[in-house]
Design goal:
The chain is an alpha+beta fold. It contains two helices and four strands. A two-stranded antiparallel sheet has the order 1-2. The chain has a two-stranded antiparallel sheet with strand order 3-4. The radius of gyration is 16 Å and the shape is flat. This is Protealysin inhibitor emfourin. It comes from Streptomyces caledonius. Pfam families: Emfourin. InterPro entries: Emfourin.
């Protein structure tokens, strides 16, 4: 299984991208299980796509910051 993680943002705005091939690793089964759990949708959770000009951000409940939650609530006119 190939797992890729990209991190961007932070103070300096650097992007870090790393890929990991689990083939042949002693911890392959554990990493693959973690990956499956990480990408599985949260049961009964909402997914959000926020677009600001040309920037797109995909989010999933319950992993929202207070600012994101407030923006979603304001734009949708309902709870987030």
């Amino acid at each position: 299984m190939l797992i890729t993680v990209t991190r961007s943002g932070g103070f300096a705005g650097f992007e870090k991208l790393r890929a990991l091939d689990t083939s042949g690793r002693a911890d392959a089964a554990e990493l693959e299980e973690l990956a499956q759990q990480a990408v599985a949708p949260v049961a009964d959770g909402y997914h959000y796509r926020i677009t600001v000009d040309d920037e797109v951000l995909d989010l999933q409940d319950p992993c929202l910051s207070d600012a994101q939650r407030t923006l979603i609530r304001t734009v949708l006119g309902e709870g987030a």
